[in-house]
Amino acid sequence: MKHWLLGGLALVVAGPACADVGLLERIVGGFSRDSLWKNVQERCLVPATPTHADCVIVDRAQGFVLYKDMIGASHYLVIPDQAVAGVDDPRVWNDSQRNAWAFGWQARDIVGKAVGHSLPDTLLGLAINARASRSQDQLHIHLDCISARAHEFLVNSDIGTQWRDLKFDGKPVRAMLVPAEQPALSVNPFALVRQDVGGDMGDRGVFVTYVKPAGGAAGFVVIDAPADKASGGNGHASDFLDRGCKLGRALAAGQ
Hints:
This protein is α+β, with helices and mostly antiparallel strands. The protein has helices at 2-14, 21-30, 35-45, 90-94, 100-106, 109-115, 148-156, 189-197, 246-253; strands at 55-59, 64-68, 76-80, 124-128, 141-146, 164-168, 171-179, 204-211, 219-228, 233-234, 241-242. It is 31% helix and 24% strand.
């Protein structure tokens, strides 16, 4: 029964061509809420010179690691080089010196390399989930292609330079545009959300991407996705991303 379950999970997660029961065995059998942090420490931070393939970038000066996630060929994680639980940690919102979002955005070309061809900035995004929606108690910002649903949402939503209440997949979110003619992320989305919300930030998911509409202002869209049972919000900002990078792969097929 266990092997049947693991095989089924492998097919669902990775697809028939990439089913790896051994991988799922390790996920199911060895899962814990600190396993990500342990792996990053052992593979990327403890060795004097990291050699593990998952340690894509280790930048001790900036204090971040770009780490290859185990699921999704184009999925990467931006992780601090010290123990930080997640968005509920006050250091996340009070640190004016380090910008994990800017670090991840600067490394965005890695997604195109994983897919096999360069991708436009408008198909890439970063997301962090709220405390109630995460599986690991080490802060990690997801980097990958945006989903088709996210692309449709961005195209059809009226997003301006002030926070606006919207719905994504029926769930309440708030969105604002930070104008930027060039795709250089100079603001910290954590700071933008905190300035407007204040209070306990552990119940906020955050998503960031770049837009360049033909008839509108280019810039970074910041999405605040609250975890709020009363309103139906789940704080799962990574729903804006697609581990299969379908839009990016379809772009290659059409070239």
